[in-house]
Amino acid sequence: MPENDAFWDFYWENHLQPMENLGKRAAILAVSALIRRLAGQTSQPLRLLEFGCGEGQVIGSLLEAHSKVCSLSGSLGVDYNARFLAQCRQDHPYLRCIEGDFTDPDLLAGLGKFDIVLLVNALHEVFSDCYSPELNQIDIPAAKMRVEQALAAAADRLEPGGWLILFDGLEPPQVVQEVLRIRFRDHRARQGFETFAQEYQPLQITYRQVDGPLCVELPWRDFTRYITKSIFLGKRLWQSERLQSYQYFTEAEYRAAFVRSGLEIIDLQTLTVNEEKWRDLVDIDTPGVGFPDEHILIQSRRVDPNSSR
Fold it and tell me: What is the pTM of this model?
């Protein structure tokens, strides 16, 4: 069977079935299409770099699928979590990994240059690391500055004309200030929300009960934070997920940060990832309002200063 789009649709449909995180699926599919396109434009193997590679689900899957056109020895995964990297090396023994903080200038300086850099659910951890005990939440201005610095540093690891792919959380637009009224499907879902509001650390959650115990009003942004974390409530992962905010930049803030980092956005999509699961927990009573796009997928190129474009 020739390796055309139909082949790759079939390939990924089978290989990504176990992967529950639909966001990572979207990122993998986008980068796979990009690799196939770039492979037809060069005779050199493509070098991939993933910051925050974790257990290697993204970069490992891509290198396994495209080993004919990607450099296994020239590609790299970076993560600060030794336990995740141990699993990564076990699952993807062909992938070279480095343990370290990808915001560390000394680490970055020794990495070299790459054709594709991946930031999949990585920058929201940089944002979340700026928690201030004095503020009892994330220091938002400082955190946004650190995120943009990390983005610019990642872009600097690209060859001129190289590609940076980002998948991460999306903050609702600044203009969205409205309060939503939501109604939980049952008391268990209502209790899960109470746990979220009490234990979620990054930012303070505000709400008020109205029209009975199953109905509350809360700001749009706090609702977005709740639904993106709701799938982890009652699970072991909640203990780490409650410390991280997926949302940090609006679409406009992403666009501006990419320009300042010397990146040209080629494609941008906003996504709703788990709407079916959310509908099992809660209904939105506010008329005319649906579940928000809470994630973003950006494909961008590093601007080549020597290009005539």
Answer: 0.94
